[in-house]
Prior knowledge:
The protein has eleven helices and eight strands. It is an alpha/beta fold. The chain is globular, with a radius of gyration of 20 Å.
Amino acid sequence: xxxxxxxxxxxxxxxxxxxxxxxxxxxxxxxxxxxxxxxxxxxxxxxxxxxxxxxxxxxxxxxxxxxxxxxxxxxxxxxxxxxxxxxxxxxxxxxxxxxxxxxxxxxxxxxxxxxxxxxxxxxxxxxxxxxxxxxxxxxxxxxxxxxxxxxxxxxxxxxxxxxxxxxxxxxxxxxxxxxxxxxxxxxxxxxxxxxxxxxxxxxxxxxxxxxxxxxxxxx
Length: 219
Ligand code: G3P
């Protein structure tokens, strides 16, 4: 059960990584654009922080993605760098080539069971079904997770892990694990909210008040 942060804001990632609960980071061109930084400066900082697994997305046609993937692996190393490709004909061909060379590949923009099967057959280490974007279009994103994990389980698929992405709320994060996702990536703001429960707050207020009453002084 792994938690990744879906972000390119290194200060936030550093803060949450220090909790010891974060297993990796996923980025994409939109997140990089929002950070206002050069992608490779972001990747280098994440490497220096010690993030064990960093998804770095490549774009373009098959050969461009393969070339970029090789260059990123050479620059940042196989241990921490994961190459992220889209679930397209070119992306899956790049996935095959890079996986055969020993790279971890994350196939992103997965919206169907059929795409998840093709990604697995292309040697993907991770597939990223987009829960939130499926929900945005009036289908049930969690059903997609359930369908993929159930099929992978029935077919004894072990080499491809389900990395649930595009999460917008705490409930869906937890449900992804219930439905068998191996990894869930989420924005730091959602990770923060995972701590929250109204009964914890209420209970703590009572305990603090009783502690203070026991010793005759406020905390
Ligand atoms: O990293 C891919 C994914 O998590 C994007 O999420 O919120 O843009 O649909 P979102």
